[in-house]
Amino acid sequence: MGVQERKEREKLQRREQLLETARRLFDERGFLNVTMSEIAESSEVSIGALYLYFKNKDDIYAGLACLGSQKIDALISKTLQGKKPPTHEGMVHFIRKFLQLYADYGCFFDVLKLNMKGKGSIALSDGNANQLRELTMSSLMKSFDYFSSRFPEKSGKEQAARTTTFAIWAFLLGLAQILDVGRTEVFDEADIQRLMEKAADILLDVPLEISAR
Asked: What residues contact 57, with CB distance under 8 A and at least 6 apart?
């Protein structure tokens, strides 16, 4: 690895560390109650160094949404694009990891989704907006390719794969929302494990169920 590549990698690592520090502070105290100075202090960098990476708190907020999207996209790549098809245990791990990532970053996705519709208050730069769209499309296409490979060669295969992709994404996001609301009041850990086991069955078997019709 060359000097320039090493510097770029270190810069990306530092940026992610700053984002994670900000996420922890936002979780503990709320976005509105945290200042850039406090993020810099907790990160053990100068306020000037923090501004080299982010223009303001809105930029950090959008950066967290992009970071979460990157992590989810990498998880999908690892799970669905391996040389061997995922096992039941592998799919349970995928679901558990997906739900954890959504718990950590989902609020940032949700706020920026409203912002893209003109209903939010976060100033989203064109660069962040484009990155979010590209990452979302990347994850959708990887899911589409996975389900497409599971359908037999026949008329309507691509349409069925696309429909399955959107249905599964809706299912996973719905599961994340249900667990977020009911984890402490409705579901215990045994319930959650059973939900993930069933969800793994659905993810592995739904394409075959549809193609059999």
From this structure: 22, 31, 34, 35, 36, 39
